[in-house]
Design goal:
The chain is mainly alpha-helical. It contains 8 helices and no strands.
């Protein structure tokens, strides 16, 4: 049987095999320190990428303790310009535009809690680039025109699953003759 090592009374480190405990910066209370922790967590999320207010609310909700006001933290972030649904929508559209169609991007914007008026404002730019994006996606995946009905159906299903409308899919595959 292995003997447990003795703690060195002159050392600040714990005995081998035991973890050191670090006191929390908030002092363990639920006052200002925990709200600060909530704000820090929000800032960490926002440092990685833009989030909509609804998305950030959902991510922070499990970390809210009794007596904390999540909405006040989110209001402060919006007031300082660090949280913006408009920027979140723009970033998502920019990231997804080359691989997905308008329907898929619109669906993702709604899932992230972006307001309908912001989605409506983004749609014209998506509509303009949708045909070109569909052609690029199709070219990368297939590159050649379908030889039979089975292949044609496969290509139509693929482009539809990427969120492109049937009109755009038919134009890409030249089925609208």
């Amino acid at each position: 049987m292995r003997k447990k090592p003795e703690a060195n009374p002159l050392s600040n480190s714990p005995p081998e095999g035991e973890r050191a405990t670090v006191p929390s910066p908030s002092g363990g209370g639920l006052g200002r320190g925990s709200v600060l922790a909530l704000r820090v967590r929000a800032m960490q999320y926002l440092a990685r990428r833009e989030h909509s207010r609804a998305e950030l609310h959902a991510k922070l909700l499990p970390h809210v303790h009794e007596g904390e006001d999540l909405d006040a933290v989110l209001d402060e972030l919006e007031k300082r310009g660090w949280l913006s649904d408009e920027r979140a929508a723009t970033q998502l559209v920019h990231a997804k535009r080359s691989r997905f169609g308008m329907q898929r991007i619109t669906h993702e914007l709604r899932q992230k809690g972006i307001a309908e008026e912001l989605i409506t404002a983004v749609l014209p730019a998506l509509k303009d680039s949708e045909l070109e994006a569909a052609r690029e996606v199709w070219k990368k995946k297939f590159g050649t025109a379908p030889q039979d009905e089975k292949e044609r159906a496969k290509q139509v299903r693929f482009l539809q699953s990427r969120g492109f409308s049937l009109d755009v899919v038919f134009k890409v595959l030249r089925l609208d003759d």
